Amino acid sequence: MTARQSRYVSSVVIVIALLWGAWPAHGAWQEQAAIPDVPTRMKGTWILNKGLSSTPPPEPAPDKSAAGRGRQGRGAEEPKDPITNEELQLRAAVREVQPPPAMLIISTTPADVTLMAEDGARRTFTTDGKRQQVQLAPSISMFTTTTWTANGLSQNVTAGLLRLTRTWAVSDQGDRLIVTVRMDTRERGASPPVTFVYDRAR
After folding, report:
1. Average per-residue pLDDT for the chain
2. How far apart are CA 122 and CA 193, in angstroms?
3. pTM
4. Together in a domain, 113 and 15
5. What is the pLDDT of residues 82-136, one digit of tens each?
6. Helical H runs in the chain?
7. Is residue 64 part of a domain?
8. 116 is a domain residue
9. Number of neighbours of residue 106 by Cβ within 10 angstroms
10. How far apart are alpha carbons 109 and 18 in whole angstroms?
């Protein structure tokens, strides 16, 4: 074998070795292929597990901190302040997340996720992390940003006085969905997180 042929063979052996090292082992390849992506794992029908879920807090009442201003004497009539549009937005947004639906049907596309309750009520959110306006009533809306995470979905909501975060996390086994809601209002501050647990329908 000439020196030139020897150098050629050595180069081929090096290339094959590099390719062999970069290519996953047969078992590793099967393991990677067996793990579905998050949107696929979230798809399906989920049933609320009331025994493992938090009890939703009562709906926030209108802020009446200034209701008694200007009142003179005992028995004076308390002025009735009109509910502001911001408070209406807050109430409507809270009703979007609690009480939780007894059944949740999730469908996904490359661009969005759709959540449907047992009564047919549904919301579709884009998952590109861009701000989206969601109409709750003729003059009431909320704004959301929704993105996929390593094990589920994350959403930030703003509606009037309310700042709300929702996360959906699928268990490693894929048989349980944990929905966590955190609320924060400018007047009342942050509330303790509320967790709703769903089991995959059989």
Report:
1. 78
2. 23
3. 0.70
4. no
5. 677 777 777 888 888 788 999 999 999 989 999 999 999 999 999 999 999 998 8
6. 3-22, 26-34, 38-42, 85-97
7. no
8. yes
9. 20
10. 37
